[in-house]
Structures are given as C-alpha cells and as structure tokens.
Amino acid sequence: MYRLVFSQVLQRLDAEAVHHFTVSALALLARLPLVKRLLHRVFAPHDPALRVTAFGVHFPGPFGLAAGFDKDAACAEAVAALGFGHVEVGTITAHGQPGNPRPRLFRLVRQHAVINRMGFNNAGAVAAARRLRRTRGVPVVIGVNIGKTKVVPEAEATADYVASARQLAPLADYLVVNVSSPNTPGLRNLQAVALLRPLLTAVKQVADATPRRTPLLVKIAPDLADEDVDAVAELALELGLDGIIATNTTIKHGGETGGLSGRPLKARSLEVLRRLRAKVGDRITLVSAGGVEDVDDVWERILAGATLVQGYTGWIYGGPLWAAHIHRQLLRRVRRHGLKSVTEAIGRTA
Ligand SMILES: Cc1cc2nc3c(=O)[nH]c(=O)nc-3n(C[C@H](O)[C@H](O)[C@H](O)COP(=O)(O)O)c2cc1C
C-alpha cells in the first residue's frame, strides 16, 4: 500500500515539501494526547526481550530514528508512538540558521538512497530547549545532536558547541557531538584528534555537570580513513565518552553535491562498525547508522557489536510503520535464536 502511495504520489512531489508536511503532521499528532497514547500502545516496542540499556539509559527497543529528521525537536513523541525506540533530534546549532539554498534534498529512488545538503537548517538551541521542556505525554528516549553554527569560524567552534550543550544537555537523555556532516564547510576537519580532543573535553565538562550526568557520544563520517576511525575510537576511550555513532552520510558518490545516505552506504557503515568493535570491544556503546533497511540489517549490526541501531532513509522508502515492523520482526528473531533478550545478541559475531 505504502509503495503505491510512494510511487504514485510522494515520489512526484518535492522531497523537502513532503518532509515538512510529514514533520508538521507528526507535530500535530504529538499534540493529541489520546491518539498519541493509542498509537504508542499499538506500535511502540513493549516486550521486555527488546529492551536494551546503554550508558545508563533504558531503551524500549534498540532501533531508533537517526538525526536530521526532527531537526527542531518538534515531533519526537509522535515518532516514538510509531515504533522507534529512541529519537535523535537535531542537528541543533547554537544560533538558528536557514541552511543551504533549495533544492537541497534529492531522492535516488532506484538505489533506495537520498542525497542531502540541508546545511543544519534549524531554529537554534534556545528554541529547541523550549520545545524539549514541554512535558512528554508518552515515554520517549531523546538524544540531542549538536553541531557548529555555519558563520562561526573553526577557531571558535568549541565555544559554539559548548553554548548548545549548556542549553540542551540538561534536557537530553544523551548528547551527540556531530563533527561529520558534509554540508557545513570545515566541520569534518574537527574529526582530527588534535581539534577533536579540546572540543570533546569542553562539551564533556558541560554534560558531566548536569544533575543526571548526560551521556556524551560523538558521531563520525564513513569517509574517515581506517586509521582515523581508530584514532577517534582511542580518543573516545581516553576521554571516557559514552559512545560513538557510526556513521553519517558519505560524500563518496558521483551525484549532486551533498551527503549520500541509504542502501549504498550500508557496506561501509557496517565496516566502520566492525572496525570500532575490534578496537573498543564493549568498553563503550556503539550506535550503528547507515543503510539500514530491514530487520536483517538491524540484526547484523547488533551481532557485529551495535547496542543501538538507527535509520532514516529507510523510513522514506519503508513507510510510516517501518520501525514498528522492524521491532516486531526483531522480537521474533530473538525468540527463534532461543535468546531471552536482544541484549544477549550484541557482539555475538564480533
Ligand atoms: C535528509 C537528511 C538529513 C540529515 N541531517 C542530519 C543532521 O542534521 N545531523 C546528523 O548528524 N545526521 C544527519 N543525517 C544523517 C543521518 O542521521 C544518518 O547518519 C545517515 O543518513 C545514515 O543513515 P540512513 O542511511 O539510515 O539514512 C541526515 C540524513 C538525511 C537523509
């Protein structure tokens, strides 16, 4: 049914227009407590066998929505009600900004992929904090992903991230330093350890100072050389970070300028996950994103060492109940393997 709606209607419309319509519809849904609760009861993961705990946070299921969909923290509860085990909002920057000129979002339907060069369009950290403070009507784990404001020079990047962290860390179940989006000039240079160490150290001080000590993760690009993946992993261990999210979109493609996500990213994201697991073992949490389309992908990432798995592009092609469906199948998979919980599967093939 969704495939028909997608090919006959959605695919013919501007991708960003569909995105904004979807977010608005979900934001409206988030304001309807009864509907939201009903959907949550039906579609959210509830079986104890799907529960995972990472960095002290309890997730109802391991599969969540990656950053970039709910950039302004407008509809996280509705997203959770549709079956995602967590929602990573953002990227949020200290100052609001419009992002790059349109068009900036392109579907590659045959490849089940997307290219985007959105450029962190968002209303800024203060506006996001206001939204996050609103009471949550259904339980939802919210990660907050922060990035650098475009006009802020690289030399002042740390202060800019710290400003966002001060606003948002107290409201986040976990905080992510995003240094891997390709659409803010120079951002990915911050992945170099010499720049990353002072940045993460400063943000960690802020995250550590919140009443509940907010877990801190770093999100990396799939285009890092293997040695650089290792270097970030070592740094994460050295600084006592809580986790690494791998990966963001890739710029290694021949299409429109921007980051490529979806099916073509699958192999490299899995490769980076395996490399990270070999380096850090279970000492820090690994979150895998990139090209996840179905339960087989989620299962493969968990076996390879991911405690949490995220998807975004697969949702565009998979339809509204994509995550609910994946969690349901995952539960069957856990039982078929005679496991008590999905947690027992983490890192089994690593
Ligand atoms: C339209 C779009 C916007 C995105 N925006 C962000 C962002 O703001 N911050 C971020 O960390 N990742 C962003 N991402 C990357 C995703 O979070 C994810 O890491 C990547 O798309 C790989 O997962 P996927 O193949 O399941 O989409 C974006 C992805 C897409 C498709």
TrEMBL record:
It is a peripheral membrane protein. It is found in: Cell membrane. The active site is at S181 (nucleophile). It catalyses: (S)-dihydroorotate + a quinone = orotate + a quinol. GO terms for biological process: 'de novo' pyrimidine nucleobase biosynthetic process; 'de novo' UMP biosynthetic process. Residues 50-332 form the Dihydroorotate dehydrogenase catalytic domain. Pathway: Pyrimidine metabolism; UMP biosynthesis via de novo pathway; orotate from (S)-dihydroorotate (quinone route): step 1/1. Belongs to the dihydroorotate dehydrogenase family. Type 2 subfamily. Coiled coil: none annotated. Monomer. Its cofactor is FMN. The lineage of its organism: Bacteria, Bacillati, Actinomycetota, Actinomycetes, Streptosporangiales. Pfam families: DHO_dh (PF01180). GO terms for cellular component: cytoplasm; plasma membrane. This is Dihydroorotate dehydrogenase (quinone). InterPro entries: Aldolase_TIM, DHO_dehydrogenase, Dihydroorotate_DH_1_2, Dihydroorotate_DH_2, Dihydroorotate_DH_cat, Dihydroorotate_DH_CS.
